[in-house]
Amino acid sequence: MIITDALTPARRETVRALAERARLHDGIGPLDEAALLALDDPTVGATHLLVEAGATGTQTGADGTEAADGDDADADLHGYASVLADGTIQGMVDPQHRRRGHGSALLEAALEATASPAVWAHGALAAALALLTSRGLVPTRDLLTMRRPLDAEHPVPAIPAVRDAQVQLGTIDLPRELERWVEVNALAFADHPEQGALTAEDFTRRTAQDWFDAADVHVARREDRMIGFVWIKREQPGQDVDPAQPGDAQPGDAPPLDAQPSDAEVYVVATDPAEQGRGIAGALLTTALHRLQDQGVPAVELYVEADATAAVGLYERWGFTVSGRDVQLRPERV
Which of 56, 135, 188, 256 is most buried per CB count within 10 Å? Predict the structure, then answer.
């Protein structure tokens, strides 16, 4: 097993290819956005664990160079796990190399790599949950995926008026509103373990991704001061390429002219707590849904904590239904 805090470009691509093979097999991506971003950025403090064909023992590179530049740089990758700085663990094993102990080995090493492990079972797959619970981990978070079609049979309702005539809707003005975005996000998610901790650097890192479009960050302002926002994420169409059959497509290529839009994601919904109760989130979300529907996006999804009953009920009234589930597990406290 290789343990490193930095990956060479070649290994980053093998991890991405493995993640795509796992997604196609399991129907769910094994790595969340934070883990994917950590593949490229060694400054975020992630630890990478890799099981490669033919590798024996454990190789550790304190700065990534010793382990990452060895003779196995082009070896087949059988398994991978990510340990983020906050203790979040997630990973996958190649579908063709499962039931050989790779998952157990990665899990044990990942648990030893952090003092506060929190392991995601994306999709709540039965085999993953069985492995994690067999190691004494217990569920502590339940994250729902909710989806809403945007076809003609599911029309988006009219944009409701905000109950404050001074509030104006628009799109984000960068870089002018960057710091205010961070403030509103922190206020809205003060009790959220991940979202509320995002910094200006985290925001900028996401705006550098191919999918970012400032026109998809809808904001509400009073007297030119942001008080709420809805951020939509849309991957480029035509990018779901089978890594086993890549053809001529390459990462970053422009989509084909006949590519159809893929589902969008309601990435973040946030309102300054001092401004809640005026219908700001509803007006922003409906505005965003109208734009997506007008552009032919087939559906939109979002993620919400299962125990956030008020939010779940609100999304259900907007036409969203539960379509998936992720479970986070931690060691049981004695």
Answer: 188
Q: How many helices and strands in the chain, by DSSP H and E?
A: 9, 13
Number of Cβ within 10 Å of residue 121's Cβ equals 24
Cα distance between residue 35 and residue 51, in whole Å: 17
CA distance 160 to 143: 28
The answer for residues whose C-beta is within 8 angstroms of residue 63's C-beta and 6 or more apart is: 5, 6
257 burial class (0-12, 13-18, 19+ CB within 10 angstroms)? Answer: exposed
CATH code for the domain in which residue 66 is found: 3.40.630.30
How many whole angstroms separate alpha carbon 262 and alpha carbon 323?
16
- How does pLDDT run across 216-269, given as a tens digit for each residue? 999 999 999 999 999 999 986 434 434 344 344 444 444 444 456 789 999 999
pLDDT tens for residues 177-193? Answer: 999 999 999 999 998 87
Token digits for 22? 């796992």
